[in-house]
Amino acid sequence: MRILNLYAGIGGNRKHWGDEHEITAVEYREDIAAVYSNYFPNDKMVIGDAHQYLLDHYKEFDFIWASPPCQTHSRARLWGFRNSDKVETKYPDMKLYQEIIFLDNYFDGLWIVENVKPFYEPLIRANKELGRHLFWSNFNIRHTEIKEADINRGNRKQWSELHGFDLTNHKLKTRKDQIYRNCVHPDTGLHILNCAVGKILIKKDYEQQSLFEEI
User: Fold this and answer.
1) In 3-state terms, what secondary structure has residue 197?
2) In this structure, is the dihedral angle defined by the CA atoms of residues 35, 36, 37 and 40, taken in order, positive or negative?
3) pTM assigned to the model
4) For residues 200 and 206, what is the distance between their CA atoms, to the nearest angstrom?
5) Which among 32, 47, 41, 63 is positioned nearest to 179, based on CA atoms?
6) 18 to each of 6, 22, 26, 194, how far by Cα in Å?
7) What is the DSSP letter of 62?
8) Domains of the chain, with CATH numbers?
9) Residue 59 has what pLDDT?
């Protein structure tokens, strides 16, 4: 299966996907992309604008996962703003909803967009809520109990063990604890891919059945 992993980060969602798929990852930060490539050397890494890459290349893939930046949507930003005059005020980044609308109307394959629960009522209702994440998709995501970093407690060692990534020897411009907390847990990534693969198999079976009926 040809998979496009947008806003790939260090690859939390991708960790348990194995190497049987043809995966292209897009990440605009070179330092973070280097961590991803260290863990997943067989994936094609594109360092660039994921939002634009989606527009230019969406037809080349069977399954697309997008995790647009969540900082301007997060409840934590609003809490911080209310408690400090040092937090910069920003408009929520509407690329999140642009990509949901675009994929839902233009993409023929299976897709999922992930983000945190926002501080406002979502403008487009999510298909699934797991932990502190919302998921928009065109396939059914079965419920599961997920693991995720406690953003209010814990430390780098605990988060490293939780996600299975060791950032100790990587030089990064962003605080490492923030990178760990931004990760989708690998078990969640695998669960969602399994739900998508199940949908693809059903679709293929249906197409095969239709072919025989026409004969």
Assistant:
1) helix
2) positive
3) 0.85
4) 10
5) 32
6) 17, 10, 18, 12
7) S
8) 2-214 (3.40.50)
9) 98
**Reduced DSSP (H G I as helix, E B as strand, rest coil) percent helix, strand, coil of the chain, to 5:** 40, 15, 45
- Report the amino acid identity of residue 190: L
- One-character DSSP codes across 91-148: ---THHHHHHHHHHHH--SEEEEEEEPBSS--SS--SEEETTEEEEESS---------
CA dist 70 and 97 (Å) reads: 12
Two structure tokens written together for 158: 């605990």
Residue type, 6: L
Cite the DSSP H helix spans in the chain: 30-39, 50-57, 75-83, 95-106, 156-163, 176-182, 186-214
Task: Please give the Cα distance from 187 to 98 (Å, whole number).
Answer: 27
Walking along the chain (215 residues) 10 residues at a time, the average pLDDT comes out as 97 94 97 96 98 98 93 62 62 92 97 91 92 92 79 69 83 79 87 88 43 31
